[in-house]
Amino acid sequence: CHEMVVRGQLPACEDDLLSLAALRLQCLLGDFSALSPYPPLEQLFPAGVVEARALLAPVDPPGCPSFPGGLLAGTLWGHKRRQEQDQRLRARLREEGAVVMSAILERWKALAGYSRRDSMAAYLTIARQWSGFGCTLYEVDFYI
After folding, report:
1. Entry pTM
2. How confident is the model over 27-38, as pLDDT tens digits?
3. Which of 3, 14, 26, 32 is disulfide-compatible with 111, CB 3.0–4.6 A?
4. Residues with Cβ < 8 Å from 81, sequence gap 6 or more?
């Protein structure tokens, strides 16, 4: 079930995904401790959701005009501009990842006292809300 969640195969809202990640931490590590080494975000939360959040924010800084598509393409200026956009996008990904991890840690703190069994039961209760839970999903190419 957890693998389905992390791969983004469980269509859950972001609020549920945060709760599932916190429950996973509670199950693995017990009660929150600032000294607890926790796993990387991509082992707790779907990376696609973090990427989508980062892409919602504008990559170009406000007030910077965009040039027509082919005007500066292939020039040194165009290359430099693409590098700067890539750097800003990577920075946004790091920022969004930090925001998501912070939200997960806050929820984990609220789970103090949950046993491993309680955490797993609560996790599965949230996951079972999806009508396709327990089904095997296949990617199918459709040709018409």
Report:
1. 0.75
2. 999 999 989 898
3. 26
4. 72
